[in-house]
Amino acid sequence: MNPGSATTSAPAPPSLREAIAAMSDTVERLSELSRAKYANPYTAVDWPEAVDPEASWLFAPELSTLYGTPYWDGLDDAGRHRLAFAEASNFFSLNIHGEKSLMEGLAARLYRPDLIEIADYLHHFLDEENKHSVYFGGFCQRYAKIYRSRHVAFGARPDRRVDDLLFFAKVLIFEEHADRYNVLQSKDDRLHPLARFINGAHHADESRHLVFNRAIVQAFWDAYSPGWDDAKLTEIRAYLGQFFATTWHEYYNPDVYADAGLANSWQVAEDAWNAREQRAHRRRISTKCLRFFTASGILPEGPADVF
Amino acid sequence: MSSDLSSALCSAASAGLIELRTWIAAKARDLPPEGLTDDLPLLAGRHLTSLHLPELILLLERLRREAIDVDGLQAGDFQDIRTIAARFLPVAAPSGNGATQ
User: Is residue B77 part of a domain?
Assistant: First the structure.
């Protein structure tokens, strides 16, 4: 372009430093809140001696992955309670696995020179994720088990800018979904008080994490995406679309169905995943998250094979 | 083994291989002009990523009706369709080139 031209042009994208500086007030406020709400997970909860899976709801029935399917209709009341108990253990387990990866990624970015402005908050984020895992692990180890993860990671992504965006975008997706479950279950009077407490304690911190996640993903996107070509953008969008599928599939765990006494548990998982009611459920839970991704321009639309 | 049972197993294995190919064809990105073949390098060619593997492992567990020990997996186990079938669906391993499109 002719520098002397009077024509208008799009403003230059912000540098990462500028994009992060723009969120500094938010980060400072979040750090103050984290300090004010600092909790001790070893004194915050009185663990009961035992929980009776058939006497109490540990997971809201409407959030069960079999709710609305013929499998749910075929269970008696005790069977539904046992399934809900296993689903609670799976929900806490997938949070443990997710938070392990999250803590690794946060620790790797702590005091990185280009992210120094958010180092204080990364300390709180790490601390709070570790505390959540104390709750989740405490439940699973005392009363149930930790369900295995099917995640495997081979190789590293060579482009650090893409890696940064995708890391926090994945955290955002994972935490937005889990938080919807937390919010609904922390207010559900039918649930055992321990289940309500763990969901409520998680939500109390996650509400801050969600604000941070959206701000940092937006900062990376604003700073980096103008420099990416169509092929790179397509690759990033495909990856995030697949992450929606991957993270949702973890909720439909055949090991849970086997523990609940259902035969051919892999087919149960496949049928539940494809059930119309469950597709609608996933869309409802993902709505806020999808709205962020489409409004920011990161995703043009939600992944069709998930909803 | 009776011929009826042997035939049924072969049929199930063949159906499993078809489902595996169909799943990968639906998920793989940037396939070459010749399409998906059984020896196309899936991870090295960036047609699939590690992020696809949890879903693929679920599919393989369902097809073989047996859990897979995730801790023992290596990237080479998912090199291509032929390797995946041989590693996880032994009776379904393809013998030809296996072009699917």
Answer: yes
Contacts of B68 in chain A (CB under 8 A): 150
Instruction: Report pTM.
Output: 0.92
> Chain B residues with CB inside 8 Å of A150's CB?
53-54, 57-58, 68, 70
Query: Can you tell me the distance from the alpha carbon of A118 to that of A24, in angstroms, rounded to the nearest whole number?
Result: 8
User: CB under 8 Å to A194, separation ≥6 — which residues?
Assistant: A45, A47, A48, A51, A58, A139
Domains of chain A: 16-295 (1.10.620.20)
Q: CB-hemisphere CA count at 13 Å for A285?
A: 28
The CATH number of residue B8's host domain is: 1.10.1200
What's residue A3's pLDDT?
40
The answer to whether residue B98 is domain-embedded is no
pLDDT given at position A11: 79
Tens of pLDDT along A203-243? 999 999 999 999 999 999 999 999 999 999 999 999 999 99
Residue A269 and residue B62: Cβ atoms within 8 Å?
yes
Q: Do A152 and B53 touch (CB under 8 A)?
A: yes
**Total tally of structural domains belonging to chain B:** 1
Q: What is the DSSP letter of A43?
A: T
User: Does the structure's ipTM exceed the value 0.85?
Assistant: yes
CB contact under 8 A, A245 and B61: no
> Is B51 in the A-facing interface, judged by CB distances under 8 Å?
yes
Does residue B30 carry a pLDDT above 60? yes
Are A197 and A203 contacting, i.e. CB atoms less than 8 angstroms apart?
no
Interface membership of B27 toward A (CB under 8 Å) = yes
**CB-CB: which of A150, A154, A305 is closest to B70?**
A150
Could you write out the DSSP letters of every residue in B59-97?
A: HHHHHHTS---GGG--GGGGSSHHHHHHHH-GGG---S-
From chain A, pick out residues whose CB is under 8 angstroms from the CB of B23: none
- Residues of B whose CB is below 8 A from A235: 29
Interchain proximity A245–B55, CB inside 8 Å:
yes
Tell me the sheet residues that pair with A191. Answer: A57
